[in-house]
Specification:
- This protein has about 260 residues and is of the alpha/beta class.
- The protein is built from 10 helices and 10 strands.
- The strands form 3 sheets. Strands 4-3-5-8-1-9 form a 6-stranded parallel sheet.
- Helix 3 runs antiparallel to helix 8.
- The radius of gyration is 20 Å and the shape is globular.
């Protein structure tokens, strides 16, 4: 945290004479996310707003005192691409994946001699990493049959309405009318998926990446697969930056126990 930033926030709150110093200090402590920067926090809050709108889960009121780089998105054809130095140089990046995918990914990484750690969401909960890559989440949701619901809630992120609004507002996003997104009864699984994604997104302290396989998802949905759609929507919202190459430090092999100790 930069001291100058804290000073700016403190001064802006006390300069009008309406706030007591004690109250301002408590506000900064309770309302500020000290673990990550504003750009990482923004994408997490976007997913949190999906939970608020479609499932009535309260928003979190957090602020970040520092800015950082936009989270980056990258499409790959195969997991093998992560072993290609022309595509991926991220020895210190920790991967987080859907729990159901972790065992298979670890075997693939071992076979390809990719030495990065892979954590499932449950295993990673409570941990934080300086550089974190989410691998295959939207493809996983597509495989689970949630493509239509996710495309709808991602469109709703562009709505100017309050998050309590779930029925059509007459707004069009990507040329399509927003449709009802109250999924508490019709698609409760999306709540679990969104919370899984939110938990994974909030593991990154500094550098955050989202990586998806081009071929992910159900075959019948390949005309509009969720990973590509999600990345386009997040880019249009100014929440991510697409890249075709990741370079993030050198290989630093540490054990899960050491990660836990650091967290």
């Amino acid at each position: 945290m930069r001291a100058a930033t804290v000073n700016d926030v403190f001064y802006s709150l006390v300069k009008d004479g309406k706030h007591k110093v004690k109250d301002v200090l408590q506000y900064i402590d309770l309302q500020t996310n000290h673990r990550t920067h504003a750009q990482n926090l923004a994408i997490g809050q976007a997913v949190r707003s999906i939970l608020a709108r479609s499932f009535g889960i309260p928003m979190t009121r957090e602020l970040a005192l520092i800015d950082g780089e936009l989270p980056k998105t990258m499409m790959i054809k195969k997991i093998r691409d992560l072993a290609d130095a022309s595509t991926f140089q991220g020895g210190n990046i920790v991967f987080v994946a859907p729990d159901e995918k972790v065992h298979e990914l670890r075997l693939q990484f071992q076979a390809l001699e990719i030495h990065n750690d892979v954590f499932g969401v449950r295993e990673a909960k409570g941990l934080e990493f300086d550089a974190c890559a989410l691998l295959g989440f939207f493809g996983h949701f597509d495989e689970l049959g949630s493509n239509d619901e996710w495309q709808n809630v991602l469109r709703w992120l562009s709505s100017s309405s309050n998050t309590t609004k779930t029925s059509s507002t007459g707004e069009k996003v990507d040329g399509l009318m927003l449709t009802d997104c109250d999924y508490r009864l019709s698609a409760p699984n999306v709540s679990d998926e969104a919370m899984m994604l939110y938990t994974a997104l909030t593991r990154a302290r500094n550098h955050l990446y989202l990586i998806e396989l081009e071929s992910a998802g159900k075959g019948k949905q390949q005309s509009n697969p969720l990973p590509q759609f999600a990345f386009r929507r997040l880019k249009d919202l100014g929440l991510v930056k697409p890249v075709s190459f990741i370079k993030e430090g050198h290989v630093e092999e540490i054990t899960p126990a050491q990660h836990k100790a650091r967290g």
